[in-house]
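Duplicate of earlier report; J domain-containing protein input re-posted below.
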Amino acid sequence: MERDDKTPQEPVSYHSSLRSGATLLSRRMFRTCRNFIQRQPRSDPEIATQLDRMLAIIDVLEAASLRVGLGNNLPDHYAILQLKPSDDTTNRDLVRQRYKTLVRKLDPNKNMFPLAEEALMKVRESWQVLSDPVQLDRFEKELKGEAEVVSPASFWTMCPYCWYLHEYEKKYEDFTLRCGNCQRTFHGSPVKPPEPESMVEGKEQYYCYHMSLPLRYPVDENCSFEIGGNGGRKMRIKTVANRSKVKGFVVPDSESESDPEMEVEL
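Output:
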């Protein structure tokens, strides 16, 4: 009986002549692998394309190993996207073009060489920084050694007696605090801060809302609220609470009165 040695094999993802280069690449012997690539003939267009894919992996990973900045602790996102200092890096079309070119070369569906996915991840991280104006500005400042001034962490708490919100430094959380409005002491438990749209821009103030309703409610048709008069309902609408900075944190100013509350009878 004849033996059948034919077993299904995975399709070859790159030319057999490039297996030595793939082994060097997997071992991160980038310089030796680059020399191997330069010695290979490029007469075959398919082999030439595969050599370019290998070279793209080496270029990206070598650039990702570089460190720049004042403390030499920042990745060189420009080098990863193969941008030179003479290039206009503010030109987003140029940055996008380099990004797309590298993505095509490092596409794991076509580039089956080792470390292709790692190189693609580095490219995407650099693109995320260089394509976002906010992250790009932060990266440029870090390159120049310009440290950003970071305000101390803070938390918001509420006085349970007058309902005033206060903002304190984080180190005062769970301390016994004194309300700057009613002068009573209370436990500084953190609460949800006011919404950004409720803050008065350029002032130490925030908008707040109050509502007062009678404690008795109608139980039958003969018992109902009067509209207006002593039995009417009053609603207090949108007042402004003042805040002032004291010893590095913000508390309400007891000497400055809040704006008079507007009362509307229904």
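The mean pLDDT is 75.

Merging into the original ticket.
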